[in-house]
Write the structure tokens for this entry.
Amino acid sequence: MNRSTPGFPGRNRRLLLSRRAFLAAALQAVASLIACTAPLPQPFPAPAPSPAGDQGSYVTPDSPRVTPAPAASCAGGLPTVVPPTPIPNPGFAQQEPETGLHVTGGALRVDLATYRLSVSGLVAQPLSLSYDDLRCLPKIEARVMLECPGYFVDWQRLAGPTLASVIALASPQPGVTDVTLTSISGYFARFALEAVTGEANFLAYEWRGESLPASHGFPVRAALPGKAGSTWVKWLEEIKLS
């Protein structure tokens, strides 16, 4: 008998502790997989950074560069955008040789002629915005860090209108507390309103001054510095207030 644990055999106690340690480790592993679901997590090598060319000093969330949309460019003179061609998927959480970025799923093809981003729910003015509507809004540009905890870290230079400015166009009704971002794929992430309407949170349609790669959300994805990469919804189709 173990004198420090009356009535409890020392051997059984050690077995119980071993089982508890095993269960704790298993639960931690499951939590890590769930953290970056998009869409089917799988085991992969140790985390790797983006190429040196896309690393550097992080532009803090409160210091993005604001660029007003030129009025002339939105009077019918926006540059033509050719939808990017999807590139081969290197595998879950692997790095694309073409972009130097990590991926967590296959790409979607989106027809810009029919694409619309809706802003719905508790709003006075429901919106259906085209890609060009978004390009005509003032935009911010910042180098941001997209992290899937325990998986990878990518530094990206992205640009687009703030999420708050797009929501404001729809005139939210009193009492709105939550925002749900939904992808064309059906994937979604839900947030408290105040958690995503700071000036650092935006809807990215540009990457390094060009349109987003198809595998990273073309035409539009959420850019939410400080939040897990699994919440940066790609191929964004709906913003719903509730």
User: Anything to note?
Assistant: The longest strand covers residues 139-148. Residues 1-8, 21-35, 37-63, 67-72 have pLDDT under 50 and may be disordered. Helices lie at 10-35, 131-135, 163-169, 193-196.
